[in-house]
Amino acid sequence: MEIKAKVKEVLVNLLRVRPEELKDDAKLYDSIGVDSTEMVEAVIALEKAFGTKLGSKEIGKFSTINDIEKVIQSKISGK
Amino acid sequence: MEKIAITGIGVVAPSGIGRRQFWANIKAGRSFVKEITRFDSSKYPAHIAGQIDDLEKYSRVSERLLKKIDTFSHMALIASELALEDAGIDIKKEDPNLVGIFLGNALGGWMYAETELRDLYIEGRQGVSPYMASAWFPAAPQGQVSIYYGIKGFSKTVVADRASSLMAIGYARKTLAKNKLSMILAGGMEAPVTPYALLCCNTYGSLSQNNSAPEKAYRPFDRKRDGFVIGEGAGIMVMESLERAKKRQGKISAIISGYATNCDGIDRINPDSSGAQLARAIKMALLEAELKPEDIDYISLDGLAVDIWDKSEVSAIKSVFGKQAQNIPASCPKSMFGNLLGASGALDLIIAILAMEHDLVPPTINLDEPDPNGLNYIRQDAKEHKIDKAMIISRGRGGINSVLVVEKA
After folding, report:
1. B130/A40 touch (CB, cutoff 8 Å), yes or no
2. Which end of chain A lies in a sparser environment, N or C, as judged by fewer CB atoms within 10 Å?
3. The dihedral of CA B211, B213, B219, B222: what is its sign?
4. What are the CA-CA distances from residue B78 to residues A43, A48, B181, B289, B337 (Å)?
5. Which residues of B touch A16 (CB under 8 A)?
């Protein structure tokens, strides 16, 4: 599964939002009203899903799906 | 003091969710105390309770929010919604800065906490939900209700053992009387049917161990009492000044005319066996209500079904009411659904209001042989009786006394 689809799947399952609510280039705070505690949970879930460490400074509530994809892409390719 | 009215009632209890279903079961004297089925409690000395199994059926709370909150906050959200509906208030039309929340509870949200603490020791810190910190603590329901409705006024959570919610209602009344807010959601919620909370209640040593006959277990003021039974739920009311309630043509369920609270200052667990300070609290509440003892038409009893608590409560009532104590109907309806601990006073108040509305005194069940004697105990069946003024007694561990007087509008 491509990274972006997997990120969306994790967020949909975790935050119980509808897939169509997640826009690739919208900040998570704006698209699904994610709060900082939800982001803590999301970072942990993404770390588990991709088997890589993600810093809370790299991904936050003002990140977009595209931003998250880029961060994960660089982590995975840098391994 | 400016008169403060109760104009909406929201009840979530083992006996029913919503005032109609709840009252139908209360007036019929039906017991809802059963063996605990939520988890294996068979090894606990006491493993019976008043439980709510169909909370989701009444809830409009989203799945996304549900995973962040404990059951006691969920109950508070449902009770708040029911209270606002009952009051006919559209909260979006209120000034959010002038709406407050005053809630009481004794324990906090342990189902959430226990699950996460288990994960902490099994999976390490990464196994713990980040919502843990905001889900379990006693003020969590206040926070969740405020977020849900966008409420921004002065608010408060009271933790005073079983007297918590009646105390919260007392504070809410005082705050409204000072014209600090235009309306308040007041009451309490408790969810003690969890493995650890049940363990703590068992350790307290005052739970009935009559596990083989749950419906007969909670027997306040009965010679064969052996302790109380826990229950879960929430009771939340809309409170506002009588003037405002009349202006908006709201339905006025009751007026709070007196309230008092004090401490025994004797023991960390037990009350003063003489009931002297409870008697003083009763006198103070009557004084504030400008009533004489004989003006009271119904006394809602705390009724812990523990010797020292029941005896000192009756002593206090006798010392204030004198011979009238034998005439004024008194009952402890929580014998039907369990003691909701920090939320018990709010439920008692709701029952007293419904009793006034129907001029019907709800019974104490399982009261076969009164001990101590001397009160006009209404037992087994509800009794028709005109109630214009009622008194609610709520007491907490270590000798906390709270007394509230309500009147028909």
Report:
1. yes
2. C
3. negative
4. 31, 35, 23, 32, 19
5. 62-64, 67
The larger pLDDT score, comparing residue B331 to residue B67, is at B331
Distances (CA, A) of B182 to B4, B97, B132, B365, B409: 11, 9, 33, 39, 19
CB contact under 8 A, B126 and A37: no
pLDDT tens digits, one per residue of B162-215 = 999 999 999 999 999 999 999 999 999 999 999 999 999 999 889 999 999 999
State the Cα–Cα distance between residues B233 and B16, nearest whole angstrom: 10
Model confidence at B250, pLDDT cuts 50, 70, 90, reads very high
Strand partners, B157: B103
Q: Write down all domains in chain A, each with its CATH number in brackets.
A: 3-77 (1.10.1200.10)
Q: How far apart are CA B310 and CA B287, in angstroms?
A: 24
Burial class of residue B230, CB neighbours in 10 A (0-12, 13-18, 19+): buried
Let me know how many helices (H) and strands (E) chain A has, helices first.
4, 0
| pTM score | 0.94
Distance CA B368, CA B40 (A): 32
Q: Do B131 and A37 touch (CB under 8 A)?
A: yes
Per-residue pLDDT tens over the stretch B137-156: 999 999 999 999 999 999 99
- The answer to whether the complex's ipTM is over 0.90 is no
CA angle B238/B51/B135 to nearest 5° reads 65
Q: Walk across the sheet containing B48-50 and list its strands.
A: B33-35, B48-50, B230-231
Question: Which pLDDT tens digit goes with each residue over A22-55?
Answer: 999 999 999 999 988 899 889 989 999 999 999 8
**Residue B96, helix vs strand vs coil:** helix
Question: Would you tell me the crossing angle of helices A65-77 and A3-15 to the nearest 10 degrees?
Answer: 120
Farthest-apart Cα atoms in chain A, separation: 32
- B223 Cβ contact partners less than 8 Å away, ≥ 6 residues apart: B368, B369, B370, B371
Q: Which residues of B touch A43 (CB under 8 A)?
A: none
What average pLDDT does the segment A59-64 reach? Answer: 91
Q: Which domains does chain B have, with CATH numbers?
A: 4-247 (3.40.47.10), 260-407 (3.40.47.10)
Taking CA–CA distances from B131, the nearest residue in chain A reads A37
How far off is chain A from B119, nearest CA to CA, in Å? 14
Task: Please state, in angstroms and as integers, the Cα–Cα distance from residue A40 to each residue in A7, A19, B141, B285, following that order.
Answer: 15, 20, 22, 49
Test A41 with B131 for CB contact under 8 angstroms: yes
